[in-house]
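dumping this here before i forget
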Amino acid sequence: MSANVWVGSWRPHRPRGPIAALYSSPGPKYGLPTNVGYHLHDPSRGRAPAYSFGVRVGGRQEERSPGPAYLLPPGTTAKGKDGTPAFSIYGRPRDLPPIRTPGPGCYSPERAGRLAFPSAPACSLRSRTRHSASHQTPGPAAYGLPPMLGPHVVGKSSAPNYSIPGRSNVGAFYEDLCKTPGPCSYRVVDADVYKRRAPQYSMLARNALPGDNTTKPGPGAYSPEQQGRQQGLTFGIRHSEYLAPLIVDVPD
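structure:
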């Protein structure tokens, strides 16, 4: 080429920084994070929303219908339903009830009392609610004031206290050091053991005497005043005229 060819204002110069063309190896271009996809995306780049295709639901595969050409409702044409007008008879609807709005004369403001006019607060007594049973607040009787007598007085010094203990058998003048039994430790022996035994008698229960237990009349059961009465007359039995007499002695 001729040296007079114009090549422009560009002249070869040293690059400002390292470029990929200066390296014979692949270089750091493989270490850059990807800008495509969701996994290991470049954090310095914006990431668009990612969508996935779902699997087909199993219920759709179970439906094995032959298609829309079967079991068509009557009156259906190729363009839709038949256009013939059809009428139906419905029942008569009920009339709406009239609006019964009360007038001014239905109100009695003079009976409102404390609801409409200012009045003093009134309190009422009611039964205890069921939530009060869970309250474990102690009452006035649960607290006790400190005693004013004895060595446990709060804020005051007490005089020395003495107590009289009971009599002890250890170390006393009457302590039995020999541990021997006394006269009262032996029981009294019956005299029949070492002397002639006296006769012994026993008392039996009273025996009942034999007698007549039947009920007999007493003096009050008799009426002697009725013994002097005269006997009255009575009518005999009427016999028939045709009755034969009794013959005892029969002649031979």
